[in-house]
Amino acid sequence: MCITLLSTAHPAFPFILLSNRDEFLNRPTAPAHWWDAPNEHVLGGRDLQRSARGTWLGITKDGRIANLTNFRDEGEEVARNKSRGGLVTAYLATPPVSEWNDETFVKYLVDDLGIHNVGGFTLLFGELRASKEGSLPGLAAVSNRTSSAQGVRKIATKLGETHGLSNSHFGDATWPKVVHGEQLLQKAIAANVDRDEPEEKFIDSLFDVLSVDTLPRPKEDESFQTYTKQLRNSIMIPPVGGQGIISKPADKVAAADGTDTPDNGEVKVGDGIYGTQKQTVILVNTEGHVTFVERTLYDGRAQPPPADQQTTRVEFDIEGWHR
User: Which GO terms describe its biological process (predicted)?
Assistant: First the structure.
């Protein structure tokens, strides 16, 4: 049950994004990196389970960002040859000189790529630019139920907003983890501003938000399918549903990052140990400087990675930030 939290409420960082990727821990995943040509302008991790090599979160040198969370949409037929992660790639991989805007990209998704048979998802995407009199370009929110480019919801269009999203439609306030996450992010921002703490201290506090574990432990003989209903209660999901790792509190799980993951499409997923696999914090300051930090809790073998492979950190300046 992934979660995305974002805010435009910090005076020094007009865009903040936090992400937990929850998965079956044996799903092979590449750590965040600059992609190979012709997409060397894209920074993000990649799912190595499927040939589409999609991603759940990425950002480009020219400030385009996209993030996807999926959810089960009962009764909807899903095409096996389509990848929801490929929708993120479709936006990020657009050449930097492209004339596409939000409307033309949504039209491409609906009319050309086809999004109504890929399974339930919410995709946030848009350009990051300097605010102008408190206004921002904002992010578009698209789902598998979007029928046209008209009326697509935009969020983060002004300073002072905070939003959360998990494995349900955007705006679903019935998920405790989303409501709790929004509250904790707002508190972390306020504390950092009030105390005038340095960036590194702030980043640590944001990872603390992503590591909050309020998940009730499974009852004896409770099936994993039944237990999954509890996952909406906790921002971080400790390892559950397998014999390989004993479930333990989040503060005992070492946050880590980027480990080499084998390119192995034959790995069996969908059973075994499930939990928060990766955590990401993205800060963008008022001058368009990006700090992207990814921590990998578990590698493709469902084990914590070596200490020297735990954290990937990339910094760069957004091209055209003041455009």
Answer: Golgi organization; protein secretion
